[in-house]
Batch of 2 targets.
Target 1
Amino acid sequence: MTDPHDFTRRLQKDNGSKIVFVIADGLGGLPQAPGGKTELETAITPNLDALARRGTLGLSIPVLPGIAPGSGPGHLGLFGYDPVKYEIGRGVLEALGIDFALGPNDVAIRGNFCTIDEEEKITDRRAGRISSEIGAQLSAKLNQIRIPGVEVFVRAGEGHRTVVIFRGPDLGGDVQDTDPQATGVPALEPLARSDGSEKTASIAQQFLSQAKDLLKDDAPANFLTLRGIDKLPHIPPFSEVYGMRAGAIAVYPMYRGLARLVGMNILDAGHTLDEQMSQLEAAWNDHDFFFIHWKYTDSSGEDGNFSLKVQRTEELDAAIPRVTALNPTVIVVTGDHSTPSTMKSHSWHPVPTLIAAETCRFDGSTGFGESHCLRGGLGQFEAKHLMLLAMAHAGRLEKYGA
């Protein structure tokens, strides 16, 4: 199949239009009982509903039907990069998100502080969602770890997240995660999945052994799991693929890392949604494309908190008028994946998606929710095509062919 980037490179044009992507992480959900409403449908969202009435709705498939994506592939698809072709470990994204300068001899790892019991079984995969301050203290403690033949760097992330870097020769990045994605079981072993990564797996095992001893008195964060072990890949830059100056307004490091990976300009997002909107307003004249990331629809879903996910959705809705007041040519509202609170995890369910622009074909939608999107004019489509649709609605693509 032809790479869609071939079309965007050939057909792109700069007409001064503005595109805003509002990404509510884990937006899609499920009802608490059959026939009920999802979190998005339960939320009172007058501003998103108003966008729906002047836009076109649909459901986007982050990777492939039936595949529950991580946030990395979910966002890459939204940015128009095939997440199957560009498989990127979460560790790389976390490292880039905290401005760690990755080199060719580096293996980057996302660490999750967790709680283990006397039998070394995981009782809480996120250590009670410890504060960033505590996470920074624990990361500094782990930064003392020394392993012969390799440099070890440990840097604090957000909350219970940390970043681990191994630097040295002959390190492969194909090592399995140690997070079992379940409680009541021990952490997994860091096993090499292919030739060339055995050395990295051995170093990871030594690191975990020392970490267990260093953290033994730090409950609830008395251990950590390793995820997304990988090396820095090459990926074509956003500006070259789409011909737009892109700005990213994301609070959490991983999402800044995703944006940096594709060459977006990382803007100071502050710590609140209000500060994110202020940054959007301040940077409006400097960029053609904006990526705004809202994390808390995902974390509330992962915690199984239906009512909190409803509340977080309503908080995002309240900020939408500050976006529309800037009169962007195209507004896209969607998520990188679904995180139903009934499942407490990412799921394979297609994600509610809204495109609002003067060039939209009205599809009769009166509100923004899964049931409306199921009947919307966009239908169900792979998320990697969303950028093409946004550019077309913004008038940024020339005609193809004679």
Note: The domain at 4-87+236-393 is CATH 3.40.720.10 (Alkaline Phosphatase, subunit A).
Target 2
Amino acid sequence: MINALMQSPFDRREMLKLMAGALPGAALTTSIGAGAAAAGAAGLVSMPTGPVPAGFDPLSPQQNLEAYIRLTRSLDPAATTVGWFGGRIFSVIGDKEIIKPLFDIEGFGIGRTEPQADGSYKALWREVGYYKDLATGKIMETWQNPLLGGETCEVYPINNDPVNAVLKPEFTLGFGASKDQYTETIKFLLPWNFIGPHAMAAFDVNLDWKSPLDPKDWKRESPGERVRVSEYQQWRVDAAQLVDRSLPSLNAYGSWNRVATWLPWMLMGQTPGHLFYRSHTLKLGRVEDLPKDILEYTAKRFPKYLTAPTEWVSPNVSSFEMYARDRKPKA
């Protein structure tokens, strides 16, 4: 999620939808507010590790929300944020087979954040991502799947628009799926670590949701009736910047890890196994700071992603839905 990070059958964008309670039929666990929720009646809360810098309250939902926006975006509604990500994707099959690299991934999100009168924020975002050849580093249009004996697959790049969300100091886990759904209201409290001049935060989300690709129709593309996805994000920033409330945006860098089903375009269907992603994330000052190949490919294929959204659009569309819109089931 939670920052524009990225895309495949399920992405950060979907996590933001979940935080707003907008996705029916999903189950979710998250590190947000986890300590406070678990301690509950005992009156305990999740405590940060290390000496907390003066001027920042890690147990304030509003300050955590604003810190998250400053880490990943900007509190300035006129500012455009570019969030780059880049890394590698691996196959994980069984408990004994060695994990193997399949291809690289690189892309970015771009957007703005608008403060609301009630203390919430509207996050306007769109994002693209490309799969790259391990040997050459070039963006792939096709890929020979070694897990299918070298069968040629037509690569489907990430292109999600919109990726919007309303971010709040408190939110409810509950999606209208059933009467016994999990509906606890939790506070936006990130787990923090403070060591010397460093301030570090994380956000973990573990999801289970009904697949938009019906396996009866999408026999080679769908992972099955349900999809399990986990995303883990981390950020590091100078503690001195964190406590300086005059800074609407922080110079943060971090990582994004993901455990997810096979991508639809890989044509793996319900073959046992899954993918593991590891990547770096970095906030850039402008789109011109993107790597040349990413900038040029985006200008050619998806030019609108070089500018931030200016208007709120709904609903969001998942990567699975985008794939179903643009492709037809393989025989």
Note: The chain has one domain: 12-95+103-219+226-326.
